Amino acid sequence: MENQTVNEGKTMALISYITIVGTLIAFISNYNTKNSFTSFHIRQMVGLNLLYFANQWIIYKYIGSTAGWAFGIVIFVLWIIGILGAFKGEEKSVPVIGEQFQDWFKNI
Predict the structure, then answer these.
(1) pLDDT, position 1
(2) Helix %, strand %, coil % for the chain, to 5?
(3) What is the predicted pLDDT for the residue at 46?
(4) What pTM does this model have?
């Protein structure tokens, strides 16, 4: 990845990891400029947000709070990996499902 692209997109990439509001701010801010580094991390965070909501609405409700709590820890670890990648200036996908996020949300 080009260093200038990373430097220009790093702030918005980090903002995208600050809850759903940060993801929306980064998406709107990146809509016209289309920085590839920022887009990569927005796609990762959109996927993590969807996992979080699925955990809250499906797993907690139908499987149980213990499973929901455990899955919440996994999502938190994936979030840490994603935000550390953005901080370091790397396009590092979250393990297991990060490549699918890139494919599913390729229009972002």
Answers:
(1) 53
(2) 80, 0, 20
(3) 94
(4) 0.88
Residue 95, CA atoms < 13 Å, CB-side half-sphere: 7
DSSP, residue by residue, 23-59: HHHHHHHHHHH--HHHHHHHHHHHHHHHHHHHIIIII
Block residue for tokens 């149980």: 64
pLDDT tens by residue, 43-96: 999 999 999 999 989 988 899 889 999 999 999 999 999 999 999 999 889 999
Residue range of the domain that includes 34: 3-104
Give 29's contacts (C-beta < 8 A, 6+ positions apart).
12, 15, 38
User: Phi then psi for 26, rounded to 5 degrees?
Assistant: -65, -40
Does the CA dihedral 99-86-26-4 come out positive or negative?
negative
Domain count, the chain: 1
